[in-house]
Amino acid sequence: MISNPIPSLLFLKVSWLALLLLLAGCAGLYQGTFTAVSEDQRQAVLESLRQKETTIRMLRGLFQASVSRSGIPFSQRFNGTISYVSPDRLHVRGFLRFGVPLMDFHREGNTYQLYFSAENKLVTGHVDGRDERTQWDQTVQLSIRAIDAVLGKIAGLTETDLRISNNTTHYRLDWVAVPHADDAIQEDFLVRTWVDAQTLELTSIEYRQSYDELVVSVECEDYRDVQSSSASGQGRVRLPFVVRATDHRSGGGSITLNFQEFILNAA
Question: Which of 14, 22, 208, 261, by CA, is between 20 and 30 Å from 131?
Fold first, then answer.
């Protein structure tokens, strides 16, 4: 007895169609028709984003990190602490199991120092990669972009040429960073920031070269309320407890920070 192949073929077609629709939905998460916002909407979005950054004067936190990149000479998973003082003083410490020191990172403005305890090795460099570059610049920049997203630091917020548009779910902020004469990268960089239309919380940041080439992306998830520890503080802010930064270039990698605790504006 020969079975009828038509139902089987029909099932395969329906299955492929469902798969294509699923993939299209994933790829088109932020796709759709975007229109320029009104001036009132623009000011409301900017005020909300700026308020978060100005509220965070000091921040301390505990996290677990997962790092993926070829050639990294330390454990791909470690615990750590972060200490930040506005505007750009940052101290990050990493520990192995049982509290064994792994690395000690200091940033002051555009310069950084990275110390590896086990090797008694000190690496110095510039955050923006100017002058002589080190093998750690790429990893340092990726980590700082992840932490900047936690702190609400968004490139272009004070620029008049920042373009803001929206659809039903997200605001899209586009700003073209024109390089200075001494910058390491001599190409225009598009910083595209996605903000949830309902909560006005940062969803992701894309750093694009030549507009269509995605270089680095940062994603923020699991927002929670964090109360200010200062008696004269401004109440609370909502911070992402999961941040993932990915370098999409050849040989790049990713870093994921899972925070367990934040202490805001404590003396």
Answer: 208
- Give me the torsion for CA of 95, 90, 150, 172, rounded to 10°: -140
CA distance 196 to 122: 41
In contact, 262 and 252? CB cutoff 8 Å: no
Q: Give the mean pLDDT of 67-86.
A: 80
Q: How far apart are alpha carbons 140 and 146 in whole angstroms?
A: 10
Residue 24: CB atoms within 10 Å: 10
**How many whole angstroms separate alpha carbon 46 and alpha carbon 54?**
12
> So what's the pLDDT on residue 200?
95
- Per-residue confidence (pLDDT) for residue 2, from 0 to 100: 45
Amino acid at the residue 257: L
> What is the CATH code for 33-264?
2.50.20.10
Per-residue confidence at 20, pLDDT binned at 50, 70, 90? very low
Q: What pLDDT is recorded for position 74?
A: 58
SS3 264: strand
User: In whole angstroms, how far apart are CA 139 and each of 133, 135, 207, 254?
Assistant: 12, 8, 15, 9
Residue 176, pLDDT score: 92
Q: Which 3 state secondary structure label does DSSP give 256?
A: strand
Q: Are the CB atoms for 233 and 57 separated by under 8 Å?
A: no
The one-letter amino acid at 24: A
Closest CA to 55 of 190, 148, 155, 152: 152
Amino acid identity, position 37: V
Q: Which two tokens stand for residue 117?
A: 């305890």
* pLDDT-based confidence at residue 72 (cuts at 50, 70, 90): low
228: which DSSP letter? B
What distance lies between CA 234 and its chain's CA centroid?
24
